[in-house]
Amino acid sequence: MRKYSYILMLFGITAFLSSCGNQGDNKSSNGALSSSAAEKAYVAPGEHDEFYAFMSGGYSGNITVYGLPSGRLFKEIPVFSQFPTSGYGYSEETKPMLNTSFGFVPWDDAHHPDISQTNGELDGRWIFINGNNTPRIARVSLETFETEEIIELPNSAGNHSSSFITENTEYVVAGTRFSVPVPQRDMPINEYKGNYKGALSFISIAPDNGRLNLEFQMMMPGFNYDLSHPGRGKSHGWFFFTTYNTEEAHTLMEVNSSQNDKDFIAAVNWKKVEEYVKNGGGTKMPAEYAHNVYDEHTHMATSTMKKEVITVDPTKVPGAVYFLPTPKSPHGCDVDPSGQYIIGNGKLSADLTVHSFDNMIAAIEGAKFDGEAYGIPILKFEDVLAGTVKSGGLGPLHTEFDGQGNAYTTFFISSEVVKWKLGTWEVIDRQPTYYSVGHLMIPGGNSRKPFGKYVVAMNKITKDRYLPTGPEMEHSAQIYDISGDKMELIYDFPTHGEPHYAAGCPAELLAPNSKKIYRLSENKHPYAVLTPDQAKVERDGNEVHIYMSTIRSHFTPDNIEGIKVGDKVYFHITNHEQDFDVPHGFAMIGQNTSELLIMPGQTKTSLWEPKKPGVWPFYCTDFCSALHQEMQGYVRVSPAGSDVPLTYSLGE
Amino acid sequence: MKINKSIYSILFAVLLLGCGGKEEKKEGFSVDRAKEVDKTFETPVVDEVPASQRVTLDEKGVGPIKDITLDPEIDPEMAAAGEALFKTNCTACHKLDKRFIGPSPRGIMERRSPEWIMNMILDPKLMTEQDRCAKDLLIEFNGAAMANQNLTVEETRSILEYFRTL
């Protein structure tokens, strides 16, 4: 009974505390949350959401997975950053995933996720995302929701106009934001102009297993390549990149790269370049970049350093690249579902510039050029222009489409989403965002077939939207119902890291294929223990390998003696569960890495270097069963040079 | 009182450690550690015989297997396949020669029906929720819930065949 009275006391204290804490006023800041809006965002307990939303984590380096319309967070997928929750980037198997030509880089800035497509429609096989800082592209499986591959990009810097895929997932395309000397060399910064290059990378994707290969890099003039999108439908085979800093400034950029009234959208005919390279064109250039692949069956990643890349001088491939003049340092570069319109959002402007693909082809065929830049023909602005959206907003950034002939553009400075009509360019509706919106996302909104039911606005500034949490806050997203003529704000939710872009798709595209367990019988890990009687401890010099298995709720073995100070102890742990949602964790006192979270049928390895003699416990970190608190073991560590024999046991 | 004693013992142990004296072998503390039935939380006694020794051959259990007929002859190939599966999926908790996390499968054919055995392997959660004997076994074996190893009916059937050889 005593136990119960303690618990009651605790409840009492908690209740007391929470009643004191709730002094804040609950007034609604905008009144948008009418009861009908609440119903639209509400997903009842036990019910599932209609859409998946994959948001980039920005400086978290990862992807977060949310449900729409509820805004519930399902998972954080570690991609470019170490993740102690699962041991990603800490376990011996996954450390190679974060290898680069600069060595182990445990972090990146992840920006633009994009889901694989077939015939321009989402197919739900993989999602790709770019590492902006140390240029990398990652491929994540949408069956396991795990990062399977990361390829580094040489000659690139600030990998921002990435990672966007062509409509049959032929290539994932990555453009450099910063132009740099190519090859990198020690040279004065003020010799930038005319000397630095901007690399546009085309990475092929093997249709069967998704393996990435850097096929070629186009060495463009030294502008900043900001964002990009593929052509689709009639414009399939082309890729469009916004540029800024066509001034080629290298200092005080916020002034010096805003001098030209118009920068360019670079239109790249990648099919032409692909053919040129296939026929032996391009220059093989020495390079150094890591290619890291995770194998789902060995549960291990390997890192290979590549030594060469094919570079293409665009002026050597006639008809490969044209510049489309676009006003006011364009940022977003979006292509409508038909492939006809290319929208350049001049971020210092109030208007949107819409180019016409047909007009562009006609201008090219008529050879109507307005000079050239470093040998690349510039088309006449008036010739390629389809129309201008006079919105009245300020700071247009990004555009998505609903598949009903409408486009939705974010305005950063005036904090709003503006809905307008393709073809007539008239503004239909505008709704405020809270605050300073960057990207927006309609599931499939960057494909031939958008699912135009919701749009999510991802904001840069949160301020007063939620209870304050000190100076640092999560970013804020707003979801609008766009099924009617007018957009309706239905919900607000905080998002982890700094989501830049996001990608969404209908739940039924992924949910039925989502993997539940790894089959133990398919486990090819070299240190896997497939039956408990294979569990063992082996010494090789000062390296000790512990082959350990787990099942509810014990480790085999759980008593180990004969370990010595100075040993490198590898715990190779195989989870023998074959049931959905029964991971086991592993944590060792004094471990200089992180815990491991091992999924059913999986093997993971943790390195422990014991520093002190003693008897040191380890335990399962995941509450796995009623006997979880019993899931523990001991390692006896003896001083270096002692002769305690190596033994291991369970239940003896 | 039991609790108080253990607390004092722990405190005493901490004090001793704190003194940093020479290591010496100590006996464990001498509280009566045998299991005794706590009258307050006693589960109702329904059967004098422990579940592991009960014979429930008439019970088919709850789950996908409603009725199976065993061939008089043991199929050695099927039994071998079952043995391999048992080794991979079950031996972490079930040993042939002793009671471990769970009971030994030796002699199970004399106590349980083939249907009950297969249902227990195929859906242990459902069984421990709805089958009296499975529920009692869970309590008898310290609440160590049997893991669902996601085996197919065919795989489970072969494990049953292996049990017939034991």
Architecture blueprint of SSEs:
The complex is a heterodimer of chains A (652) and B (166).
Chain A: H1 2-21, H2 35-41, E1 51-56, E2 63-68, E3 73-77, E4 99-100, E5 103-104, E6 114-118, E7 121-131, E8 136-141, E9 147-152, E10 164-165, E11 171-175, E12 197-205, E13 212-221, E14 224-230, E15 238-244, H3 253-256, E16 262-269, H4 270-278, E17 283-295, E18 300-312, E19 321-327, E20 330-335, E21 341-346, E22 351-356, H5 357-365, E23 369-373, E24 376-379, H6 381-384, E25 385-390, E26 396-401, E27 406-411, E28 416-421, E29 427-432, E30 437-441, E31 454-459, E32 475-481, E33 488-495, E34 502-506, H7 507-510, E35 536-540, E36 543-551, E37 554-556, E38 559-564, E39 568-575, E40 584-588, E41 596-598, E42 603-608, E43 614-619, E44 632-638, E45 647-649
Parallel strand pairs in A: 13-18, 36-39, 38-44
Antiparallel strand pairs in A: 1-2, 1-34, 2-3, 4-5, 6-7, 7-8, 8-9, 9-17, 10-11, 11-12, 12-13, 14-15, 15-16, 16-19, 17-18, 20-21, 21-22, 22-25, 23-24, 26-27, 27-28, 28-29, 30-31, 31-32, 32-33, 35-36, 36-37, 38-45, 39-42, 40-41, 40-43, 43-44
Chain B: H1 2-19, H2 76-89, H3 108-111, H4 114-122, H5 124-130, H6 132-140, H7 153-165
Structure in words:
The complex is a heterodimer of chains A (652) and B (166). Chain A is mainly beta and 652 residues long. In chain A, 9% of the residues lie in helices and 43% in strands. Chain A has a ten-stranded mixed beta sheet, with helices on one face. Chain A has a six-stranded mixed beta sheet with strand order 41-40-43-44-38-45, with no helix packed on it. In chain A, strands 35, 36, 37, 39 and 42 form a five-stranded mixed beta sheet that branches. Chain B folds into two domains: 2-41, no CATH class; 51-165, Cytochrome Bc1 Complex, Chain D, domain 2. In chain B, 45% of the residues lie in helices and 0% in strands. Chain B is built from seven helices and no strands. Chain B is globular. Chain A binds chain B through residues 1-2, 517, 520-521, 530-533, 549, 551-554, 556, 576-580, 582, 625-627, 651, and chain B through 3, 40, 87-89, 91-93, 100-101, 142-145, 147-151.
